[in-house]
Write a structure and sequence with these properties.
The protein is mainly beta. The strands form two sheets. A five-stranded antiparallel β-sheet has the order 1-2-3-4-5, with no helix packed on it. A hairpin with a 2-residue loop joins strand 1 and strand 2. It is globular, with a radius of gyration of 12 Å. The chain has one domain. The protein has strands at about 5, 10-15, 20-25, 30-35, 40-45, 45-50, 60. The structure holds zinc ion (ZN). Zinc ion binds near residues 15, 22, 52, 55 and 57.
């Protein structure tokens, strides 16, 4: 299973603990990461840590370590 899905806003960063997967954040190749917490949007760059609200798994996203496309 591919961990990411593309949509019109960027690449979906998800936890696959459930179906449908839990969306953690959306990011793009420029390094911009958009995360929604309750009703607010937060913007991070290059690296983000997030805890899945459903299973509690801690995830680390580091875009700089991702293969260049
Ligand atoms: Zn999860």
């Amino acid at each position: 299973m591919q961990p990411y899905e593309h949509d019109d806003r960027g690449i979906r960063w998800v936890c696959d603990c459930s179906n449908p997967p839990v969306l953690l954040a959306i990011y793009d190749q420029s390094g911009r990461i958009e995360i929604k917490v309750r009703d607010r949007y937060y913007i991070a760059h290059d690296e983000l840590q997030a805890t899945c609200p459903r299973c509690g798994t801690r995830h680390v996203l580091n875009i700089r370590q991702s293969p260049a496309l």
